[in-house]
Design goal:
The chain is mostly helical. It has helices at about 5-10, 15-20, 40-80, 85-105, 110-120, 125-130, 140-145, and strands at about 1-5, 25-30, 30-35.
């Protein structure tokens, strides 16, 4: 990156503009960069890169949520197909996790209360609730789930 003193930039602004058309230019004052001058195309390119990066991050997050949903679908299937002893043990472990959250204040009361209510539901309803987004909380609840280590 070319650098110009602020005095030189004031006196030879045309030269700075010409250089900025090729690449961003730094303007220094007392040996410290105070400003960057660049042609519009450099910002447009940077904006496109930022937009592409945001799209990429959104896609990655969507894939993470899809993985969480699949994991909870598997857990829901296990709950409805397991023998009562195994199912009760699974639910018991999840209840212990939620109780620990409450005791140690590890997460919001909203999550604790919602998961506590879900874990008290009949098994088929619990399984359906875990994989549903009907109440608008599905994604958030799957992000903060008491089903530790199951189908990880």
């Amino acid at each position: 990156m070319k650098q110009f003193s602020s005095t030189h930039a004031k006196q030879y602004f045309g030269e700075v503009m010409k250089a900025a058309g090729q690449a961003p230019v730094a303007i220094e004052r007392y040996g410290k960069v105070e400003a960057i001058v660049a042609a519009p195309q450099f910002f447009q390119a940077a904006g496109a890169d930022v937009a592409a990066e945001r799209r990429h991050i959104r896609l990655q997050q969507a894939m993470v949520e899809k993985d969480r949903l699949i994991r909870h679908q598997r857990i829901a299937l296990d709950l409805v197909t397991a023998n009562p002893k195994t199912r009760d043990a699974m639910i018991g472990e999840a209840v212990k996790v939620v109780e620990r959250w409450r005791r140690e204040r590890l997460c919001s009361d909203d999550y604790i209360d919602r998961w506590s209510a879900i874990l008290r539901q009949p098994v088929r309803q619990m399984a359906q609730t875990m994989i549903s987004d009907a109440d608008g909380w599905g994604t958030a609840l799957r992000q903060n789930s008491p089903w530790v280590g199951l189908h990880a």
